[in-house]
């Protein structure tokens, strides 16, 4: 069975994020995963509510988030990054499905974000797929002879 992925993409800094989406789609296909949803939100801060809606779907095993939080003149980027990451982590636990954090930043220049398009996108997809596989193994594991088994 193919792993089914939803993707939420920030429109803010779309020169970066749309390229991230393109890379994530290609990479997920290479890994024989199925993208069931792609949804756009205005910015990274807006991701949690869309991620929550996707997590409710039965045809999604994990959600990949893609965004780029660029450093400005204030510490606003840190507030956005910290708040978003915290809420996404909480949603993952609430819905018992992995959410990968493919959001670059904070404290990042445009050029730094641009240089991470491929690596961040691939890492986000790898993380989502890897966690689904690991969770399936541990959820299907049955203790034999009351022994302990280490599962990667």
Set down the secondary structure blueprint.
Layout (H helix, E strand, L loop, with lengths): L3 E7 L3 H17 L3 E8 L5 H9 L6 E9 L5 H20 L3 E10 L1 H6 L1 H24 L12
Parallel strand pairs: 1-2, 1-3, 3-4
Helix pairs in contact: 1-5, 2-3
Give a structural overview.
The protein has 152 residues and is α/β, with parallel strands linked by helices. The protein has one domain: 3-Layer(aba) Sandwich (Rossmann fold). The protein contains five helices and four strands. It has helices at residues 14-30, 47-55, 76-95, 110-115, 117-140, and strands at 4-10, 34-41, 62-70, 99-108. Strands 2-1-3-4 form a four-stranded parallel sheet, sandwiched between helices. The chain is globular and about 55 Å long. The chain starts with a strand and ends in a 12-residue tail after the last helix. The mean pLDDT is 94.
CATH homologous superfamily identity: Lumazine/riboflavin synthase
Query: What coarse outline follows from CA principal-axis ratios?
Result: globular
**How much is the radius of gyration in Å?**
16 Å
Number of strands: 4
Give the class from helix and strand content and strand pairing. alpha/beta
- Helical residue percent? 40-55%
How are the strands of the biggest sheet laid out side by side? 2-1-3-4
Distance between the termini: 20 Å
Count of individual helical segments: 5
Estimate the mean pLDDT confidence. 94
CATH topology tier name: Rossmann fold
Report on the biggest sheet: 4 strands, parallel
Low-confidence stretches: none
